[in-house]
Amino acid sequence: MQIAQFLPQPVRHFFSATPFDAEKQSAALPIRHMKFDFKAEEIDPKFYLNAELASAYFASLSIFLTYGEDLVIDTARYHRELLNDPVLKQRVTSLIGQEALHSRLHEELNDAFRDADLPVELFRSWARFVFDHGFNRLPQPMKLSLMAGIEHFTAVLAEYMMNHEEIFFQSHDEKQRAIWMWHMLEESEHKDIAYDVFQSLSNSYGLRIAGFFPALITILVLISIASLLVPFYRKPSNLFSLSYWKDLPRSIKLIFGLQDGVYGSSWAHILDYLRPGFHPNDHDTSAFLAYYKERLLHPESGVLTPYFVKEFTPALKV
Ligand SMILES: [Fe+2]
Ligand SMILES: [Fe+2]
């Protein structure tokens, strides 16, 4: 699968990605079970810094991302069988378990969004169409690349969120805060697993980049466009609300602003994926992770402690 093997030596050198090194890989991760019991009446539609459209983006992301997570789960399951390294297999089982719980609990949040008048069923029908007729029909190597691409974007998002913890505490909606903080912690924790599977089975730069662009377009462009509908669907009077339109530029800046926007300020990290020798752990988040595990999971004071049920780490099978 090495596309570069027929190219001249200097070009080949440029495209030679770092192969998977089993000795240097991270340890397997725990799968944490949570229980949130979301209720429509507790949903804050301006959860994200009191900005309606920026909050709509995250609600839309919650809806569409479950389809991406289901693709990650199916793809990881398929490729786990092709792996030889037992630790990498164990890590893939952790990835599958963490994503399965993200998907299930975000669906519970999405049901609450639906009951709070967000266009959840409409977005689900769009997502089903795109995945059933597009992404889920791709050949397995391309799905593997797409999985690594999606995980890159969730890692970028997680690093931004962990670096901007204050975002979560601007709203009284403790359950939205908890699910996003838990999800972002785990996205950062497992950010290297899909990539290591890809490098272990393919290590083709061209194929890896082919999965980056559909992930980019879906997460940054299509979900953003869909989210434009949310404020009007939820509250049609927003169409004529001066305060809604006046606040719109702030929402756009919060997501795409180059200064401090979620994606706008993360371009260097996003595009670093295009570097042939890229590895997710080149972006060291170990200090964030240590801090967040304490902040979220401390048995008495953790933000997630009221919602935490149990955790277990998959067994190593040799
Ligand atoms: Fe996830
Ligand atoms: Fe993930």
TrEMBL record:
Keywords: Membrane, Transmembrane, Transmembrane helix
Membrane-spanning segments: 209-233
Domain of life: Bacteria
Identification of the protein by name: Metal-dependent hydrolase
